[in-house]
Predict the 3D structure of the following.
Amino acid sequence: MRLDLWAILLTVGVVIGTVAPPLAPVFLVAGLIVAVGALGWRNLVPTQWRLMAVLAPLFTAGGIVIALLHAATPDPLAELAAMEPGEIVLVGRIASPPERSGFGYMADLRLEHLLYEGREVLRGGGVEVFAGDLSVGVGDRIRVEGEISRPQIGQDGFDYARYLATKRISALVEATSVEPVGEERGWIGQIHRRTDVALGYGLRPREAAVVRGMVLGDRSLMPEGLEKAFQRSGVTHVLAISGQHVVILAGVIYFSIRLFAVPPTIRAGVTLGLIWLYILVAGAPPSAIRAGVVATFVLAAPLLGRQVSPLHFMSTMLALVLSYNPQLLYSTGFQLSVAAVFGILLLTRPLKSLVEHTLLRPVAKPPRQLSNLISVSLAAQLATSPIVAATFEQVSLVGLFTNLVAVPISGPILVLGLLGSLAGNVFPLLAYPLNACNGFLVTILIQSAKGAASLPFASVTTPGVTLLLVGLLYAGCVPPIFAERVFSSERRSLWAALLLLWSALWLVLVSAGRL
Amino acid sequence: MRYEHFETATHGPGARRQVRTGALARYGPHVIVSMLVVIVLAGGALYTARVSEGTPKVVYTASLEEIEDDSQDPLRVDINTADVEELDELPEVGPSTAESIVQYRQTNGQFSTVEELEEIPGIGPATLEKIAPFATV
């Protein structure tokens, strides 16, 4: 008897309840029909899936209820901001590293107290603070005076309120004064500050900014031109704290501890503890949380005597994380992270088959690592391209090639960056050789990104990509996924080749504005 | 005879009940765990959305008495000290009536009661009834 689809059904319920609540009854009725059918007609679904079919409406309804619970929650902070009451006073803790904004800096603030006319009126929630100078770190407790307002939809149609809602932020505050409260500073902010100092030992500011971005996910010190070069060359993802970071870190910690013959239970426990500590220090972005949950499942499964099933872990992670915050559906970082992992899990094998039958055919014995690297990179690019095209209106064409350099090199950069940060805090002299080695690798990464970005065909603009167009490209991914389970290796290659052709055609038509 | 017993054992109502009981015993734990999963996740969502520290909560709203006090303060007009503009804020009192009130005050001295306003031309019992809640001496 199989119940593997429970997480997918619950996730579908959360998605429907969040994105299109009027469709919720339709899905519920469909689920009920399947359930009643499965109960009354034995041959409707295979025996092993019968219980799943019967329980389908329970999970879908659960997902819908979760979404509606979140949607029905009143937000008095947003209501107050909409009234634009004028001068207010806030006390709270900084939740994200300050970033440059149109004027001055901005940072997320978790509210403890909101005072209006000398009286505390609200507690809890989050606001985004804009200030000319914001010399604070994550975890610092501050007092802010300023005017509160609701985020507006930009002229380009960007829904800023929805974007902030993914971070549980309800309002903006234009600060006229920002003061620290007490002497105590947040420990995460202190780690960030110490990391900055440690990376300064032997690294130039430009390289240090890249390592800082990769280690802490904080790109605020990255030169704008360099950030654009990374974007145009399709390697920005190495700067975001993503699954790749978590996997590298988990691997390094786990296998390092194994060298000391530590029992598996303690090994998994220590690895998980350190991974979650890192995610917390890195500001807990959605992509890192996603990767952290999956890493927890992977490490805990053998201890609990469960099979390691990446697809099931991914769907369970989605159910858990979206139950906690359904607004993450609108987070581009989360979307890209989920799309990349599903792309890698579902498309790598057919693409690998294609790569081995075409690109690497002249090679007598192609190294497995090379075919893996190319197919994984291609799968992630294909899966994320529609979201990148719709969100950033620009898709990198050279990303496949630059990632062949950026992905393998980012692992050592991350590990050396972490070691350099640790050494710089304990014994600065040790940090110099580590940072020097890292500087060499970062220079290769930067030069690859800049070189690729300078090519005239490095990227294409993709204006006006709608949800329907995104769906069209993903529809093309379905045949190779099922061909993978049905046909022989040669047929898999054929379907993978058709997917590549379909993607290329989609991109050409979208960039030409014909779709 | 044997055949009849076989029929009874496989197709009779008792057999159906047995199948049902068997299914319940077999799948009961699955159903209970499934329901628990949904309940725990929905409970977590409820806690996150409504109870947790991160959720914005109103800690102060003005009481009706405070609103009443706040609203009455500026509308309580002392008819012995108010000027024409302030008297003009009273219900049913226009600029000319306000002028009349000031003239009456200058001629006859201060009002001892609000009801004395009835002496002013243009203020009858009905008007006085509307003015009274907002006027004081």
Summary: The first strand of chain B starts at residue 57 and ends at 58. Chain B is about 65% helix and 5% strand. Helices of chain B lie at 2-11, 13-51, 64-75, 84-88, 95-108, 125-131. Residues 1-9 of chain B have pLDDT under 50 and may be disordered.
